[in-house]
Automatic annotation (TrEMBL):
Region: Disordered, residue numbers: 148-175
Stored PANTHER family: EXPRESSED PROTEIN, HEPATOCELLULAR CARCINOMA-ASSOCIATED ANTIGEN
InterPro entries: Methyltransf_16, SAM-dependent_MTases_sf
Protein name: Uncharacterized protein
UniProt-recorded Gene Ontology molecular function terms: S-adenosylmethionine-dependent methyltransferase activity
Record's compositionally biased regions (Basic and acidic residues): 162-174
Species of the source: Serendipita indica (strain DSM 11827) (Root endophyte fungus)
Compositionally biased tracts (Polar residues): 150-161
Amino acid sequence: MQPASETKHIKLLEYTLGGRNFTLRQRDEHGQSNGTTLWLGGQVLCYYLASILEKETDTSNKNDGTAKRRRVIELGSGVGLTALALYSMGWDVCATDIEPVISTVLRPNVLANVDMTNIGSANEATIECKELDWSVPPERWAWRDPLRVTQRSPQDSSQPTDLEREMNSMDGTRRQLGPPFDLIVTADTLYTPSLVEPLLRSLHHLALASMPSNERSDKTGPSGKLKTQLSCPIFVAVERRDPQLMDSTFEACSRVWGFKIERIRSIKIRKSLEKAGLSWERDAEGASAWDGVEIWKMRLPGSALGLS
C-alpha cells in the first residue's frame, strides 16, 4: 500500500478494511484536491482506529441485535476512507463535510461501497453523509435533516441532486444519526489558521452534546476521591507541516477550550500500520512517509464544561 501522498494522481483507490473491499474515487483537478483526495493523516488514522477498536467491537456486538451500536461522527470526511473503515467495524457513522466534497467524492463513494437497501437493519450498521459547515455557530445546527446539519444559504437553494434523491429514498430504513456520539474523529482538517477556531468550537460542542446528562459532573469514586467525568474520546490526525500552527492549535485545545489532550506515541502508530501490513520504505536518513503524521486524543472533562 502506497502512502496517500504518492497516490493523488490515481482516480480509483482499492482498500480492504474490516473484511470488506472498498473502491474510493478521488479527484485531483488542476492541483485543487483539498477534501477530494485522500491525505496521509486520514490514511494513518483509519488503520490506527482499526487496531485499537477492533477488539472492543468484537466483544460488544451481539448477533441477536440487542447490543447498543456505537455511534461516531467524523468532521471533514473527504473521500470517506475513515468513515467506511468505522462502518465496516460495525459503527453507526455520521460522515460530514461541505460542498463540493460531499457531492463529488464522499456521497458517491458511500453509495458505491455500501448496500443501502440493507443499511440500518438489526445486523447492519448505518452510515450517513451530512453537510456540516464549521463556520456556522453550533446553536444553528439541526440534526433532523437527513442530508445536512447546517443549512445552505438562500442563494444556494438548488434542487436536490440525483445522489441526494437516492439517499432520501432510503430514509425509511436508516436511523437518523445525531448526538450523543461515542467517538468523534477528524483528520487533515488543520492546515490553515482560519479553520482552527471553527473546528475547535465544533469539537467542543459535539463533546458537550455527547456527554450524557447523568455524567455531566464530577462524581465520587469508590475510594471517596473525586472522579472526573470525561466526554467521549476525540481523535485528531494531522501532518506537522506547520509546527507553529500545530503547537498553537493544541495549546488552544487545552488552554482555551479545556480539553485534556494526549499525543499518541509514534511507536503505537507504527505498530498499527505494521499490523495492517503497511511497511513503507525509509529514505537514506531513515525517515518514512508517515513520520510527520501525529494523532492526538482529546477528552472534555465535566469541570471544563462548567458542570462540576
